[in-house]
Write a structure and sequence with these properties.
Keywords: Membrane, Transmembrane, Transmembrane helix. It comes from Halolamina salina. By secondary structure, this protein is mainly alpha-helical. It is built from two helices and no strands. It has one domain. α1 runs antiparallel to α2.
């Protein structure tokens, strides 16, 4: 076997069409914002104001609906980001 075979060797940063420092663009930024919202803001609202929706719906329904909001947001934004 010769030392110069025709095999493929990957060189870091040599992918065509790759731009350095892109950071995911607007879809990546929106995905980071939604993840922060889903992990910090919505649970904080549930912790600080557990009766937030109690005036409009029963307490148990509110405790099911509030966690559903970040789950729905993460799903929609995740699919949108992958289609970009």
């Amino acid at each position: 076997m010769s030392s110069e075979d025709d095999g493929y060797t990957h060189t870091a940063g040599s992918v065509e069409g790759e731009s350095d420092g892109d950071g995911g663009g607007p879809s990546g930024t929106l995905l980071v914002v939604v993840v922060a919202l889903a992990t910090l803001v919505i649970p904080g609202i549930i912790y600080l104001y557990p009766t937030l929706l109690a005036d409009h719906v029963p307490f148990m329904v509110a405790m099911l609906a509030l966690p559903f909001i970040p789950a729905l947001l993460l799903g929609v934004v995740g699919v949108w980001a992958m289609k970009e």
